[in-house]
Amino acid sequence: MTPEEYILLYEKYRNGTCTPEEAAQLMQYRDNFHLLEEEEIQAAAVDEQLKDRIYGKIMQTTGGKKVARLASWWRAAAAVLLLALGLGALFTKNNIKKQLAVKESKTPAAAPKPIKPGTNTATLTLADGSVITLNDAPEGVVAQTGSTAIIKAKGQLSYTANSNGAVNENALNTMHVPRGGQYAVTLSDGTRVWLNSGSSLTYPEVFAGAERKVVLSGEAYFEVSKNEQQPFIVHTDRADVHVLGTHFNINAYNDEGVLKTTLLEGAVRLSAATASVLLAPGEQGLITGSRPGIEKKRVNVNQEIAWKAGYFVFRNNTIGDIMRQISRWYDVEITYRGGLPAGTFGGTYSKGKDLPELLNGLELTGLVHFKIEGRNVIVMP
User: Fold this and answer.
1) Which end of the chain is more exposed for a tag (fewer CB within 10 A), N or C?
2) Chain centroid to CA 283
């Protein structure tokens, strides 16, 4: 079990949604903290008062049961529990000594009005140019176009084809998810797509040609329905991804310097102007504008798709990397005063937190400070 998987399981335990088997697995998990780097553990479990709070939370959560067993490993667990409990466990490898001096008494950033996290919101533009605001549309059929019914159910959209009506393979729809939003859609072939904030996907109402081609801007996670006679192609402005049936994530934001394609299962081919690579599960292909070719490396796939599960997962990220994600999810502008704070940061946070709460956790590093003015976040060393 990775730390990220532990965090997700612990959140289920706290919310009362664990199965008995998952609860038993959680209680038995003691010895896998070697997956965290030693300096990360030291940096997260630093202050005695903070440790006392963590241990007290463990006892409170378990109702006083299994305390003896938990006591034997709670210090090691502190690194992960700080993240899971939202106590602001962020650390930077370049500044361990500074973090060891951080105290709970540090004054957090103040915000006059909480900025809420993103929600399920999107617009759908049909082939005739009409636009449907999906979060305002009632559940049920939101549009009927030829042989296809477009249905909204439980905050998601799906396309259902039937034998009646004409099929127009040139009829394209576009789902646009604004900053501060996310949405999921099931395409006519059964492929499921989750769109992250500030993203859009253009696709046919019905896949009727020799290939299934969609166009992505931003970030999306795909679970492609297998069809060996009709390959699935995701086109972005920097590369194409060719698949038959598989699960993968594409991060293709224009304001990111790198396009990332991460494969969870199956196989995909990532192709750019002058290069092409085949990815295996657990591998990521990277295309950087300043470097030729495609880099391939192994990654923690749970970290790459944590956004879909409702988490920010930071590992060796600069504050610039982090604030771009925060800006998209909370729909805020970012201003830097005094330059970018140095160092790299790590940690895991729920995307369901109000923005001031998340920023307060970042400030516990002592390396960065924030001020909120309306919907503008000012970042200072």
Assistant:
1) N
2) 17
| pTM of this structure | 0.72
Instruction: Report how far residue 216's alpha carbon sits from residue 261's, in angstroms, rounded to the nearest whole number.
Output: 12
- Domains in the chain and their CATH numbers? 3-89 (no CATH), 90-115+311-381 (3.55.50.30), 119-304 (2.60.120.1440)
Alpha carbons within 13 angstroms on the beta-carbon side of residue 255 total 11
Give residues with Cβ within 8 angstroms of 261, minimum separation 6.
Answer: 239, 241, 248, 249, 250, 251, 268, 270, 279, 284, 285
**Rounded CA gap, 262 and 335, in Å?**
31
Token pair, residue 41, equals: 């553990």
What's the rounded Cα separation, in Å, for the pair 156 and 122?
10
| pLDDT score recorded for residue 13 | 59
How far CA 363 is from CA of 52, 194, 309, 344, 356, in Å, comes to: 20, 31, 24, 13, 10
CA distance 161 to 207: 10
DSSP string, 92-158: -GGGHHHHHT--TTSPPP--SSPPPPPEE--EEE-TTS-EEETTTSPSEEEEEETTEEEEEETTEEE
For residue 312, the SS3 value is: strand
Q: Which residue carries 């199965």 as its tokens?
A: 19
User: Where does the chain have alpha helices with state H?
Assistant: 3-15, 20-28, 38-44, 48-62, 67-71, 74-84, 96-100, 301-304, 306-309, 319-330, 355-363
